[in-house]
Amino acid sequence: GFIGSFLSSPSKKYQVGQWIPNNSTRMVLLGVLFALFLPLLTDTLFGGSLDDSGSGLFVITNVPRNIITSILKGASEYLTPAGARRRRQRLNDGTSREDDEFVGPRPNFVFEHPYVSSSYYTSTKSIKTLISTEEIQVRRNIIQQQQREEDQSPQREIKTRLAIVRPFCEFDAEALPTTFTCWNALPPCKAAQDDLGDEYDDYEPYMTEYQMGDDGEFRPVRNKTIDRSNEMYHTFFDSVGSNAMKSAIADVFLFYSQTFSENDVAIKAVDTIIDQFFEPGGWSQCFENIYAIEANIPQELDLYIPSAQEELYNWVNGPNRQFEAAFRIIQSGEWGEYDGFYLMEGDSVPIKAHWLDVVLSEIDVNRPFAILGAQYDGDKWDNFYEKIPISLLHHTNGNAIYNTSHPLLERLVGQLEVEAPCPYNSIPYDYRMSQMWVEGTLGIVPKLAPKIMLNEEGENITLSNNTDMFNKWAEIWEEEDPFKYTPVIHNYA
After folding, report:
1. Per DSSP, what are the bridge partners of residue 403?
2. What is d(CA 290, CA 233) in angstroms, rounded to the nearest whole number?
């Protein structure tokens, strides 16, 4: 930079460290540097050394080696086309030289389907994370796809393909990696403890079943200890063996409510989790892939303001739109073919090991269903239980398993999308879907907060009558019992 400042035009204004020489100036500087360092290069080639072992004899005396190394490194920055490109990149991005370890050519897969649909892959500065994704995940999937097309891969019967969707917003993005900490302490599946292979068969005689104790808690018991003739025998699935993952595939989706390219904190949080995923061992053995997807909700509309739920019709707009986006993304098949997804928010934490095995078994036992989840298990409603609407008492908490192929759920989500601009958007998506079902089965039309029913002129808003439509849905699917509940998931929120 010092040499460049001497050779640049005195009338040309530039900032120190931002001067980019043209080709003619580069040639002049290269000649000067070549003349200065020709003896050094000769000595290095014919007996000297530039490494730190220290035995090389330098012709240029009284010049410390670290200074020479710095000059050479700076010269490459100013005189080579690659260095010029790096400098222009820093000027455009507003980054510093210290950020160069994150700057480099991105693997081609980030510009290909389906990764190109998420701005994370084109925005992250962690090229290391992208390279790991390419080498460990992308290439493997391509090979497996080719083998399937050539019918060379071993046939594996897959009963369930489940997406584990971890939604987060800008306010909890930084803490997202910490929500995975307990996944190593409580491995999602047996594969995270044992090698997935034939030795799994050794566990088969000891498949775990669950029985309700006197205190109302479910506890694991061995098959041989169960008295099946006992009327108090209650199990919420037939059996959960150690081979649950042999007939199922699960992928992790890190799902940002807004757009990754507009939030460095969200990007770095995902970098951390994906880097952990590709480390050997741990909870990642329970999953095939990990993806970063986004809902692209504008920041000003990504709202969750519980204190305004009686006044602002879009106080819960963020979670409502994010749920709809999750449903559509998984349903589209863009990232793979899935039977459904488990929406697992940051405050939904495992409390027992092998929880993924149990969830997959629950899915298999409870088919068919539209939603499989949990009702409220807490005691905060006890003092006013009789006053709570039926649709709230029996609604399924949003942390649930959603069957994206079920026609009823398709209609429910479609109605949520239709209602986005109207006062019904003031109801959280999980509660609102319960209201639709109760209105169709029992004819009970929900009441909304009076202030939310007023338009900007202070006049009452007239809502469309959907009771007949909801009733038709009930006539088709009521006998199927599409809303099912599982003790595997508890809701204390």
Report:
1. 340
2. 39
